[in-house]
Amino acid sequence: MTSRPSPPRLASLMTQDPRVRRTPWIALAWLAIVLLGGMLSAGAALNVPFESLAPPSPIHPLGTDLLGRDVGLRLLAGGLRTLRMAAAATLIAATLGSIWGLVAGHAGGWLEWLLVHANDVLLSVPGLVLALVVIAALGQHEATIILAVGLGGVGSYARLARSAAAETSHRPFVMAARALGAGEVRLLQHHVFPNTLEALSAYALLHFGWALVNSASLTFLGLGGAPSIPDWGQMLNESRLVFLSAPWLAAAPGTALALTVLAVQRLGEWVGKP
Amino acid sequence: MRKFGARLLAAGLMLCGLLAACAAPPSPVSELRYGLTLVPTGLDPHINASSELGIPLRSVYDTLIFRDAQGRFVPGLARAWTISTDGLSYTFSLRAGVSFHDGTPFNGEAVRINLERILNPETKSQKARFMLGPLTRVEVLDALTVRLSLSEPFAPLLDALSQPYCGMASPTALAHWGDADYQFHQVGSGPYRFAEYISGDHLTLERNSDYAWGPSIYSNRKAAVERIIFRFYADPATRAPALLSGEADVMGELPPQDALRLQQDPSFQLMPVPIPGQPLALYFNTQSPPTDDLSVRQALIASAGRQAIIDTIFGGLSPVATSPLSSSTWGFVEVVPSAQDTARAETLLDEAGWQRTPSSEWRVRDGTALTVEVVIPPWGFNPQVGQMLEQQWEAIGIRVNLTQVASFAGLREAQAAGKYNLLSINLSGADPDLLRPFFVSDGSYNLARVADAQLDTLFGEAARATDPAERLQLMAEAQQRVAALALVLPVRDYVNLNVARAGVQGLSFDAQGWFPLLIDVSLKQP
Fold it and tell me: What is the pLDDT of residue B472?
């Protein structure tokens, strides 16, 4: 008995195409949920009290906290704040670090020596310690946390950008452009920078995960300054005092944070390996 | 093969026997493991200020006098004392036959050396020096009589002398170790000897079997427990697990939710102890709008649902605070009714010109939204209390900006900058004089930024009055004046939630609330 070959199903088509197969769908979907959920919950009343410490139920899928607030809603709103802080911090680190490294790698000579050694000094201070110093100096606020985490990441970007730029600056097309009379700024902007972009953007996603954990650590330590605005680090901190009675309060932000960092790392690998 | 099996069985049985012997060694000494909450930066009672240090040291030192549960002063190392009619000189007759743990005899000279050590600016005392107020001179009249001279009358002196911060230490040990090292080698005359202190790790006390001069507040003449080991559990979340795992027998300052859980467990007992002093309270800045307006302050107080805060956050385990003094403090009078009255608050705000408008979520006057800045520290459930107040005030149209600072220094910075409408600080202590720096115009804790002649007079006179009845009257008037000016929103009386294993018997606490009377503790083996 012979049978006709069945028509290829969409799912198997997708798994056969290597480009589709390598796309981290789950990671992208998770990040989309976090972002969309955060945006949708933006107008919701986060501080409305219900029953205190209610366990998960159909009405409150993630339960309520000590003050009776819906944890699911706060998790969504808090996710957006946490992602926003990490994104802004990554942007600061990427921008300052790239400029620092590109200038050092391209310039060479005494300027490179100076910038590289200054960077070594910066790298010798652990990121979280540097962040605590910045917050102690500038006060407790969301903007301070962003700046603090951002500055903590500058060093590693500068190092990466310098080595990429140093390598590119000695390639023939750059020398050719210089021979044709291109200025140093133009060389950096149009020839060196585009060739380091791939490495820097792959690193940015990896770094984003680091920034996420670090900004959540700082709000966990109560340095966010505004206890009524939710974010994941702060929710974790609040959960500790009632951990024995309501362990789900720690599980929700903890799991969300872990999944988000994993998703972003997965995305970073995907970007880095074309 | 059978022979091998029999040998294996025999070996197995022997191993079981060995393990059983290891698992239950008969304890040669009775030992209590006591959980402390904060790691003190220093442990010298004359120098350092933390409340934690008094928990072990109350039993290492005797004081000249003690304070009983009713707040009365009873003899300690001093058999009797007289106060001159002008309140400027105190004469103490000392007990004979007392010796410190190192054998040094206790006498008038020892009292002089101890008090002069505290007074000496080089000692850099953070607390004891301030507790002694205007004490200027200590004279030894004879071996067992000393006279303390003051530059002005100072009623809180007796309370100061009853606290472990003014405990009597061995002059020999003080001279031998010096100010920096004495904290590791303390020698007192109390029911327990200071055996070992490894900074940040543990502190061990051992029973003083020569103790025979206990004050009347101790029920036992000698300590029952031979050794007490204190360890630190700075993170509140670790305290209940330490009790549940059997790591600690007694622990203070449990989070209320954990305390309620352990209360359900028959192997533990919950002992809530009210702490005299100030309740958790927020002070109004009377210089900064909108709280420069009495009506706004009254409205904020009336609309605060303090009972709801107690029920939700503190599991109902604290009384609602109704005065700038907590209800267990000597001199307390109720001046701020506990009931929430949002209707009155709304009326007060309407009359003050802060109107609700259809266009805004918040009440508005002259185009400005009614906004209060609230500054709180991270400890003692202040963030949770702040957020509930935020919910309650927002419900009647008051916008709240809640800011959490990281430390006590952060609170002091906010105080100095003055950019707050409400700020939360509280101190503990059994003497109502601790309110004075908060409400006199030049007080170091004048968070309300108030300059009121009546308050200055009342608190000043209360500090100088040596007649207790007169002091009570003045303190009552002072509290009423504070409430009339609506300077403070008292929220909850501080209650220390102690939990002990069921086998711990006889645990009680002194008049300060914090300090256990360890001599009376005994252990029933489970």
Answer: 93
- The CA distances from residue B131 to B77, B162, B170, B517, in Å, are 19, 11, 21, 22
Own/partner pairs, B480-483, CB within 8 angstroms, 24+ separation: B480/B333, B480/B335, B481/B452, B481/B454, B481/B455, B482/B324, B482/B335, B482/B435, B482/B439, B482/B455, B483/B323, B483/B335, B483/B336
The chain A residue lying nearest B236, using CA atoms, is: A241
pTM (global) more than 0.90: no
ipTM for the complex? 0.78
d(CA A100, CA A115): 7
- Taking CB atoms and an 8 Å cut-off, how many pairs form between chains A and B? 73
Q: Do B402 and A226 touch (CB under 8 A)?
A: yes
Domain boundaries, chain A: 87-272
In this structure, what token pair is assigned to residue A235? 């929710």
Least Cα separation, residue A121 to chain B (angstroms):
28
Domains of chain B as residue ranges with CATH: 33-271+497-523 (3.40.190.10), 280-493 (3.10.105.10)
Per-residue 3-state assignment (H helix, E strand, C coil) for A134-154: HHHHHCCCHHHHHHHHHHHHH
The pLDDT score that the predictor gives to residue B23 is: 46
Side-chain-side CA neighbours of residue B6 (13 Å): 3
How high is the mean pLDDT of chain A? Answer: 85
Among B521, B419, B430, B507, CA closest to B475? B430
Select from B142, B150, B160, B164 the least CA-distant residue to B83.
Answer: B150
Q: What is the pLDDT of residue A248?
A: 87
Do residue B240 and residue A53 have CB atoms under 8 angstroms apart? no
**Which of B436, B439, B368, B438 has its CA nearest to residue B397?**
B368
Distance CA B15, CA B29 (A): 27
Instruction: Kindly list the residues from chain B whose CB atom is less than 8 angstroms away from the CB atom of residue A231.
Output: none
Interface check for B407 against chain A (CB to CB < 8 A): the answer is no
Quick: pLDDT tens for A51-88: 888 888 888 888 888 888 889 999 999 998 899 999 99
**B-chain residues near A240 (CB < 8 A):** 235-237
Below-70 pLDDT ranges, chain B: 1-28, 526
Q: Is B387 on the interface with A (CB under 8 A)?
A: yes
Q: Which CATH fold topology does A87-272 show?
A: MetI-like fold (1.10.3720)
